[in-house]
Amino acid sequence: MPLDNPRSLDDSSLLDAYSRAVISTVDRVGPAVVRVEQLPDGKNPGGGVGSGVVIAGDGLVLTNSHVVGGGSRVKLSFADGSPREARVLGDDPDTDLALLRTDLPSGTPAAALGDSKALRRGQLVVAIGNPLGFESTVTAGVVSALGRSLRATSGRLIDDVIQTDAALNPGNSGGPLVSSAGEVVGINTAMISRAQGICFAVASNTAVFVVSEFIATLDSGRGRVRRAHIGIAAETVPLPRRIGLATGAGARAIRISEVMAGGPAAAAGLLAGDLLLSVDGVAIEGADDLIRLLNASRIGRDTQVAILRGGVVEKRTLRPAERTSHPSKA
Fold it and tell me: Which end of the chain is more exposed for a tag (fewer CB within 10 A), N or C?
């Protein structure tokens, strides 16, 4: 008898290899995925549902900020149906990440956080969620793009977001995006329903940074991510090319629309109407650029800004303060 078509055999082998990769990934990480349900408290009525993933054997669980909804406690359901309550250790709407702590059921594994910088476009990834609390739901796809930005509910841009075509089912937000090596490379955070299933995940390297910030600030109460501000509200405006060339600025700048009384910008003499061109020599082409530069390392540190006022470039020195409110202001 003639042999089967070699091409058919090759296609079948590829499909088997793909299936084996997905199955192996789910077997390794699926038991670490939990259902997360908001509990009613003074801040919200509860009832919101999402997913999360255990990332440490001492009961640390990572999920989305919007899943916990600003609450202090949530209910977890594990893959075997075991219920637990968890305390919210830290909540960062600016990256849509939250960290929980709970008593794990015996034998619950922890998933490993991988290096999202090692991802490549076209790489196989698996999205896992636990919307029913009894068994993981799984979708698979590829990394469509890297380094995307996504607007958080706070108004701040989340940087280094992973775009994938692995569909997110309802309730899977907060669950892990996993590589074929069984490492969590992202936390699923959003789906654009009218964009043919384009899905996004906060990169695992961002999650590692946020978790470390939460843990480092627990002594002061609820964990937080420290960020700086200079006390302004601003808008992005185009910059005439001749001004950009003359000042070394980019094609855009930000116009200060409001200066907060008593803030660092006010102390340095910045005024509404000034155009902010650069921070420590780095050109600012939008409010998001400024927010990105105002990280914790600049809190209380002398920082030089270049402004354009009345056609003249001036340089001022200010000291950014820690931002505790007004997340839409820089």
Answer: N
